[in-house]
Amino acid sequence: MGLLSKKDSKLILDPLADNNPITIQVLGICSALAITAELEASIVMSISVLFVMGVGNVVISLMRNVIPSKIRIIAQLIVVATLVIIVDLVLKAFAYELSKTLSVFVGLIITNCIIMGRFEAFALGNGIWRSFLDGIGNALGYGVILVIVGFFRELLGSGTLLGIPVLGDPIEKTGLYAIGYENNGFMLLSPMALIVVGIIIWVQRTKNKALVEDH
């Protein structure tokens, strides 16, 4: 028998595709708009949310029988705020320049509806292991979309990936720039993130007709 049962595996795999928190549940769109102009920022935000959701779901699951229902939202906010502070301090210690870029948006993890939604809908009613898997699965689903959007926005908007030129030098006119290619500055604007997410949603629903809602 494998480490994960079929039921447990679905907690990891479903959010990666058919129940993705961004493209299917339409949650967490704000961060997809805000920080995906650079691939590095997208990756760091994804890892941050992975930590907060994985650990947060476990903590809420551990506390689920002692949290009074009337203050459960406050308790959840305290947990997520504590974890976000840890993430912020780690970023400032080991990636200070990036922490300045992400400073406001790391703080907004506290109000990320994906995290609060999983605390409320899953961790409060399930055991530690399944809550951990649910947090990891949804964070990975969120992160995959952020990384895809960040990849295309940085590549087409700046001609770089992780800050490294991959299409040539636009000043010296080498690589693709030698044949007339120009960076698309619109890709660096927030609305383009929404368009890229829209394209991902269209591709996803084209491949899986079951995701198309009947009207």
From TrEMBL:
**TM ranges:** 43-62, 74-95, 101-119, 131-152, 185-203
Gene encoding the protein? nqrD
Q: What family is this protein classified in?
A: Belongs to the NqrDE/RnfAE family.
Entry EC no(s): 7.2.1.1
The record's top EC class is translocase
Q: InterPro entries attached here?
A: NqrD (IPR011292), NqrDE/RnfAE (IPR003667)
Originating species? Gelatiniphilus marinus
Q: What name does this protein carry?
A: Na(+)-translocating NADH-quinone reductase subunit D
Q: What is the topology of this protein in the membrane according to its UniProt annotation?
A: Multi-pass membrane protein
User: What is the annotated localization of this protein?
Assistant: Cell membrane; Endomembrane system
Reaction equations catalysed: a ubiquinone + n Na(+)(in) + NADH + H(+) = a ubiquinol + n Na(+)(out) + NAD(+)
Instruction: Write down the Pfam families for this protein, in alphabetical order.
Output: Rnf-Nqr
The record, for HAMAP family, names:
NqrD (MF_00428)
The alphabetical list of record keywords is: Cell inner membrane, Cell membrane, Ion transport, Membrane, NAD, Sodium, Sodium transport, Translocase, Transmembrane, Transmembrane helix, Transport, Ubiquinone
Assembly and interaction partners: Composed of six subunits; NqrA, NqrB, NqrC, NqrD, NqrE and NqrF.
Function comment? NQR complex catalyzes the reduction of ubiquinone-1 to ubiquinol by two successive reactions, coupled with the transport of Na(+) ions from the cytoplasm to the periplasm. NqrA to NqrE are probably involved in the second step, the conversion of ubisemiquinone to ubiquinol.
